[in-house]
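User: I'm writing a tutorial on reading structure tokens. Could you give me a worked example: one chain, its sequence, then its tokens, then a sentence or two explaining what the tokens reveal?
Assistant: Sure. Here is the example chain.
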Amino acid sequence: MAALSDLVVDLISELGSEAVRFEPLDRRLFSKDAGVTRGEVVAITFPRSAEEVAAVVRIAGTHGIPVVVRGAGTGLSGGAVPSEPAVLIVTTRMTGVEVDTDNRTAWVEPGVINLDLSRLTEPFGLHFAPDPSSQAACTIGGNVANNSGGPHCLAEGTTVSHVLAVEFVDAEGNVFIAGGPGPDPVGLDVRGVMVGSEGTLGVVTRALVKLTPNPPAVRTMLMAFDDIADAAATVSGVIAAGVVPAALEMMDRPLIRAVENFLHAGLPIDAAAVLLAEVAGHPEGVEAEAELVVTMAKRHGATEVRIARDEAEREVLWKARKSAFGAIAQIAPDYYLHDTVVPRTRLVEAVTEIYAIAKRHDLPVLNTIHAGDGNLHPKFAFDGSIPGVRERVKQAAEEVVALSIRLGGVLSGEHGIGLEKRDLMHLVFSAVDLDAQARLRDAFDRDRRFNPGTVLPAGSRCFDFGRQPPEGVWV
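And here are its predicted structure tokens:
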């Protein structure tokens, strides 16, 4: 306790008492993100600048306590949950934005909320393209940490495609900038390594992001199907025809009904699945692409095709899609949202198997799918107060991962690895792969001061992997 008290005293001395919390209730509240895993927090800090972040890193290092960075706490993979007692750096007070309209870029501090950035740049006809479903709450820092995506990343790409440079604090408390406004900076791509590193290499204190011009025309379509296979066939047909829509989202019947009951958006509740498609660009091109999407849907048996008549109706359709998480609260007090990827052509097989997994474990399941890129988001609804249910959810989740990999997919599409999938990394990465990732991590943070125990499983670092140890060395 003496060491803990000294730590808190040092943090308050540097940041002021209003920027440091350490009471038991605070530590309990910040011990988890939006996922299901808890960790132990010894103090929570709210720095306002890169210099204050650096001070926290140095103070925590002096006391031998690791640091974990957190934005708004909307992460779902436990990436901002300490695996051992740690100091939290919460970035929500770092909200500065410097917009450069001439170059269509902005330097953005990590606590800026994703949607706020696009609202700020909307008068200039610009927006930040990555749009996670949590964009009304999640922060740019979290987007950078997890290389977040969202419905409109089918055409625009994930966060790494929209970050030109990052300013970050290293494990010694030094401040660096990697990357720059140019498209191809000289040297190693440290910027690219930092994006998606889940807070294990440094603390990002600013990011230079690209701002995408708002499209002059948009068409948003809702299409209903009696069979989820027809919806999936429409997705493949549209892309095979040479059109990559701005977004291609799918919801299954259980989720359609939950959202409709929650939002009353006029969704077709008897449909087995709906597709929400959006095309954007030059007006003439948009009309042609929208016609192709509708034609393809009808060819594959769409029972209803609805084209948003105006911006208000478009907003309702997108609100329905992005209200999926809130709607689940009507079914059970807890939910587990998964994130895996399968090849687009295996979507129907994957969803059919997910239904079977849920039935086997007696769990309700609702599906949203970034159908254009095969990113699955099954949601198991449950009541965590019932003995044994969390174990069943965990088992079902692991079966979904195994299924996705068997179908040729990967562990995560956009939520990151965190603590959630750390121990499943061996399913897709060899010992050599994991060793290479651990060596990269060591190059930035040899003492594992940043977010230790996350992403890489224990034993990933193999000393001189593949070589015979020198004669006489004890192993």
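What the tokens reveal: The CA atoms of residues 179 and 187 lie 9 Å apart. The first helix runs from residue 2 to 15.
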